[in-house]
Amino acid sequence: MSMPLSPTRFLTCDGCGAVLPLGETRPGQKCRCGRCGKILIVPAEEPEEDFSYSPQPDPDPVPTSVGFYCRVCDTRLSARTADVGKRAKCPDCGALTVVPPPPKNRPKKPPRAMHGQQYGLWGVDEAPLPAELAARQPKYFPMYCRVCNTRMHAQDKQVGTMLTCPDCGAKTVAPPPPVERPKPSVLAPEGTEYQLDETHVLPERPTYVPHKVRQFTEQQQREEQLRQEYYERPELPRIPLLEGVQRMLCRSPLPQWIFAFAFALALEVWFIATAMSEVPMGKAMMILLVAWGTTTVFGVLTLMAASASWLAVLKESSEGNDRLYNPPGPIFVDWVGECFYVVFATSMAVAPGMLAWRFIPQLPWWLGPGLAAASWLLLFPVFLLSQLKNGSPMEFFSPKLAGTWLKCPGPWLLFYAESVVLWGGCGAAIVGLQILSPALVVVSVLLASATSFLYFRLLGRLGWWLAESLPVEEQLAE
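Above: the chain sequence. Below: its structure as tokens.
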């Protein structure tokens, strides 16, 4: 009993080309095409194909369709080969065109590289020497056209024959090749070499005596000192927060910056006093609006310039330098990023104190600003150093930096004590000056400007001290 055919077998209709599944139909039975209705006979099961490689030529494929063009509108049409000789209707213009027979398959021509001399490979011991190969090559010698003086090349066998110029077409007789002259030897002839006279005594070499000893000027000595300070790694003093702090503040351009920011702060105070003054309604209101606008714009620019200067002092101090080698540029757009560091760190440092003042009831009025100031003194150094260490103002907290509170408590305690004394003394001095005379506001702002630069100088020295105090393994790991 024969097994039914696999339902995966298919049959192609001869009339319309549709592919029909055979299912369990046995060979020899009749079936009807579901597309054109033609009755077909199921063929016998084909034997299994042998997929082994056999170098047989591929038969030419029998085309099942033919492409042609409409005789009226030249539209590209296609039809089955069974419809050759019939008329096909163009879908664009409606003209009838006779379906032509498919073009005959042209025999494939082998490439020209397969004819003539072919490349070959030498055997292991059959390859000639390079000198022998060069000797086998035909030798050419230059010649010139007698009309246009074009440079041509000829072989020895072409001597005496007429050669045609590729430019002007004139014919020129190939002359004999030039006689090759032997190349002179680079070696000296025998007996003409240099000889050393052993009896000749060379005079003593004169010693160089400078006409004038070079005297370094004061400017050159200062430049040499700056070069040594820049290229040599500074040595950490025993207590960096006490030794050498005043060096940077006494060197240019720090004194000029302190006076400039003091002047800007005094001008800002005058703007604020003018903006807060009581003026009558009318034209004086315009003066008040202009004063407030000027106060805001000038205050923002002053804060940006001060932030860039403070961070420049901090970065140079954290590297152990006692001079500003890379001061901020004059373009105020570059100060925006530095200002964001200071403003964001200040806001995050003041926030805990302000929240405690807001949510703890029954606190005196003076305790709120005190909590905010204490929170700023405690957290601002950690936040700002973390931002600079991480290279982003948004990453304001570094666990490794906060861990130095436990690993190096001495530098932190000394820095906090100096900060309290510094800002407390500055505030007490300003209050005392204002009590003595309100006209001493210039001295007050000058004292505040110098205190701010001294604070960032101490903060930079603290960063240097912490970096040098950590073990070498932790620094290499970072």
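Confidence is low (pLDDT under 50) at residues 1-7, 49-55, 472-478.
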